Each structure stands twice: as C-alpha cells, then as structure tokens.
Amino acid sequence: MVRLAIEGGEPVRDDPIPIARPSMTDEEIKAVAEVLRSGQLAQGPRVEEFERAFAEVAGTEHCVATSSGTTALHLAYEALGADVVLCPAFTFIATASAALHAGADVVFVDIDPETYCMDPEHLEDTLKALKPHLKDTTVVVAPVHLYGHPADMDAINEVAEDHDALVVEDAAQAHGATYKGNPVGSLGHAACFSFYPTKNITTGEGGAVTTDDRELADRIASLRSHGEIERYHHAEIGYNFRMTDIAAAIGLVQLERLDELNEARRRNARFYLKEMADLEPYISLPVEKPWAEHVYHQFTIRINTEELGVGRDEFAEALRAEGVECAVHYPIPLHKQPALARKGSANVSLPESERAAREVLSIPVHPGLTEEDLEDVVRAVEKVVTGLAERS
Ligand SMILES: Cc1ncc(COP(=O)(O)O)c(C=O)c1O
Q1: Residue 196: CB within 6 Å of ligand 1?
Q2: CA 140 to mean position of chain CA atoms
Q3: Which residue has its alpha carbon closest to ligand 1 atom 4?
Q4: How far is the CA of 121 from the centre of ligand 1 (A)?
Q5: Deepest of 106, 111, 275, 373, by most Cβ within 10 A of its Cβ?
Q6: Averaged pLDDT, groups of 10, the chain, 392 residues long
C-alpha cells in the first residue's frame, strides 16, 4: 500500500512547488529603474511603445493598453455599445462582471468538455432562444481562450455573424496562442488581454485591447482616460483605466521573452502528457486540438471522481500534502456565483460547466520549473492516483 503524505507518509517534496511564479530577469529590473529615473511614471512613451509591440504580437492594427484585463474588457464592451454579452459560464468572473459594469446584461453559454472553451452549438441554441428579445440590441459574444487553448473561433464567428453579434475575445490567458496559424487577439472585432503576474507575460497589473478597428481603438483610448479628446476636453464620461510607464517597461521586456516563456510552458506540458498518459482512466489530461497552438497558461487535469472513488477536493488536498501546489480554476460556474445568481441565472442548467467546476485541477506548468520539479510533480500525481485508487 502506498502511504500518502496526507496519512503521515513521507511527502514527495518538503519545499512545495508553487503553482505560479512570474519569471523576472535583470532586464525587467533595469527597465523599471530607467523609468523611475526618468520622472515619467504614469502613461507615457513606454506605454505607446508597448502598444505598438503588442499589436504586432496579436496581429492587429491597434492596441490600447489598460490598467488590467478587467478594465480592458469593460472598455471593449462599453465602446462597442454592448447591451447583451454572451460568455461561457466556466471562466474567471471578470469576463462577465466587466459586462455588467459596462451596463450590459450577461447570458451564460456552456463549454466544450475537451477544450473548456465556449461550445459553438450551445451558443447557437442560446442565441436562437433569445432571438425575440434581441431586437434593436447590440449583442456581443465573448469566447474565452481558457487555460491558453484557443476557442473554436471559426464556428463561433459564424454563429455570431448569423445573429448580427459582435465578437470580443477574452484572451487574458492566451498571449501568443494561435488558431489555425493566426494569433489570438486578431480573431474577433476586439480582444482583451491581462498582464496579471500569473499570466504568460506580466506587467505587474495591466491589460490591453487589440483591434483592427481604428474608431473603436480611439474610443477605447479616450474612455480609458476620462473621455478626454484633448487636454481637459471631455467628449464623454470615462475612467482612469490607464497603464503606467513602469508597467509598460516591464511588459516590453516580457514581450521580448514571450516565445521563450511559452515554449518552456509547452515543453513542460509535453513532459506531463507523456509521463502521465497511463494515469488516464483516473485523470484526464488536457487536449490540444489540431487547429490550436496551446500556450498552457494552466495545465489543467480532470479528476475522474467515479473511477477514482474520491472527490477532486480530496485529491487536491492529498497532492498538496505531497508538496505540489495546485489550484481549482474555477470551483463555481458563473451562473451559480452568488454575485451573479441574483441576476436570475441560478436556475439555468449548464451541465458541462458544472461538471468541469467539480472535476478540474491545475498543476504547476510555469516556466520556472526545473527538471527535478517536473519529475516530482509526476511522481506526486502518480502516488496520489495510486494511493487513492487502492483505497476506493
Ligand atoms: C479569463 C480571464 N478574463 C479576465 C481576467 C481579468 O484580468 P485582470 O486580473 O488583469 O483584471 C482574467 C485574469 O485574471 C482572466 O483569467
């Protein structure tokens, strides 16, 4: 019998392996010091430079940098005049809450169980059912490239077009991912990114909207800074959602490193996929669709609780005891969140989102992992699977 650490056995690791860790070099530190010495701390030349560089990565004409991914979404929804936003129920709350802040209603769509991204067929059914209520409204469809895997954008764009809806990608977790060879960020009317410290690249806090639509970019840029069109002339009521030059300086260095950082994530994922393949009846491993290049913001497994005879949370607790940090992205689908259920979504049934919320578990995949870390993660997952399976 395997003696699990949770039962007092020897853990695989004494020093826990973190689930996420920003990768910083002396270059980021130097770039920040330069900005601090310059006296120009708030939005300035570094932000402009970052916007030009990031537009190139996203494959768009324009990029507007913001204070966070949440404010990027808020500005994109508001500038498009969204009345209704359809987004997956299985995502971080900001995809939906930003829509509510922007004055739109939110409708939740179920996910594809393999990619965890918006299910185009359920989107179609939802839009058909809503049709009588959508007259003279601006509808935005907001697919999320969850965990770094692109959503099925051709299918989603086709459904959206059939229903005269606009598309805003939530690419907060997918910098550098591609769909049929095209970068995420360029696949809808606009796309939003986050540069939070756990993301594939970071600016500390920060975000961006990318788009080919000049007018839209201008409106977003103006809303970002109090609706200003020239100094102290305000065309509309806006916000302070600006990025600082300090953040942009970090981002410019991180952007140079994006390919290397994503390749490290992909390499780590390949190792897990190979080494954990025979655990498949008990856990399911992430998939990469033939049309996708996954950038593994998260490496998220499914705990097949029936096969294993224990729940996901028990599994997570046992894995943590072995010295491997893990996290649940996300334990409650949005239609069941207290903050959103009050808006009338609580009785909706979205079975794949609900099942994913019960079964998913993310394990460390960040670029800072050493070979020893990777081997220990595999050993710990194997040990927990074997130990729990023996007991069930
Ligand atoms: C899918 C998704 N959307 C939006 C956001 C919001 O980004 P931020 O935390 O930068 O506001 C995040 C990040 O946490 C996210 O993961």
Answers
A1: yes
A2: 18
A3: 94
A4: 25
A5: 111
A6: 95 97 98 97 98 98 98 98 97 98 96 98 96 94 98 98 98 98 98 98 98 98 97 97 98 98 98 97 97 98 94 98 98 94 74 98 98 98 96 82
The answer to whether the CB of 65 is under 6 A from ligand 1 is: no
CATH 3.40.50.300 fits 26-256, yes or no: no
- Closest atom of ligand 1 to 195 CA is 10
Domain residue spans of the chain: 5-19+258-391, 26-256
Q: For ligand 1, is residue 170 a contact (CB within 6 Å)?
A: yes
| Residues 79 and 99 sit within 8 Å (Cβ to Cβ) | no
C-alpha–C-alpha distance, residues 356 and 10, integer Å: 31
**3-class DSSP state for residue 210?**
strand
Which of the four CATH numbers 2.40.10.10, 3.90.1150.10, 3.40.50.2300, 3.40.630.30 does domain 5-19+258-391 have?
Answer: 3.90.1150.10
What pTM does this model have? 0.98
Q: What is the DSSP string of 213-230?
A: -HHHHHHHHHHHBTTEEE
382 CA distance to ligand 1 middle (Å): 31
